[in-house]
Amino acid sequence: MIRMGTVGTNWITQQLVEALALSKSYELAAVYSRHADTGAAFAAKNHAQASYTDYEEMLTQADLDAVYIASPNSLHFEQAMVAIQHDVSIVVEKPAFSNRQEMTAILAALKQHPQVKFFEAARHVHTPNFQQIEKTLTGLPTVQGAALTFMKYSSRYDQVLDGEAPNVFTKEFSAGALQDLGVYPIYLAIALFGQPENVSLFPTLIATGGDGKGLAVLRYTDYDVTVAYGKTSNSYASSEIYGLKETIEIDSAGELTKVGLRDDQGALTDLSEPALENPMLPEVIDFARVLLAPEETQNEKDYQRWLKWSITVNDVLYSLRVAGNLRFPADEH
User: Residue 224 sits in which domain range?
Assistant: First the structure.
């Protein structure tokens, strides 16, 4: 069993903990929260062995194999680095790190601690439906780009309209719509098409100074991939990957719950796999496979593939922010 600790007690951590239990490969060894009452309540609800208000104390005392980091984006780097230095593997919510400098430092630390693994919790690219998209894309004789959309109205935007500045919309926390929702279709694009030759970003700024929505263009040699993302409005548009006469249709570039292939007459063949009991279950199963048997050939191959995706997504997100003049305080460090 993998002894897991958690950072954060919000809904995403709860979903992760439930996925850990379903996988039957982990035990929730420890919970970290800045607030003792919150941490204790979360630990009791999920039958964790202990809760802590001191992060380094948890890493030192809880005998962890891995820690899941779901704090505000700007805190990921420091918390991940401390875990690596304690030889604890890290599962970091996307986007894992704020910029190239942070990613470079993490990779250097990983070289100094070769037993430590780093996983970015990009759940959708571990799902059976992603595998269906990948398989179908490989079968297309011609690929002519894609239009990927993920826009969901955030209840936190109500706070912005009331004059507040919630963390998820502030540059101080390395946040905003690109980082929060745009990362999903960006991850999908990188996993399917690789690193673009150049990128452009056209963000719509809101009162916090961060981006509320935007349009990204990833330019490849023979085609473009456009990404529409946002947290200030809803979109119900499908995402599409263009072949010649065929089109792969995806209900949402963030959720991947429905996947189909339209032929040259527009007829749709449903390729969707059955709905998941928990959308985070496939990724925690994948992570466990690597943590429990890191030297197996397929596990090492998969781990290096996921790591490459994470590095490339980090680079593309940073390049997009530079192109769109979206700077974070973390960029100045």
Answer: 128-279
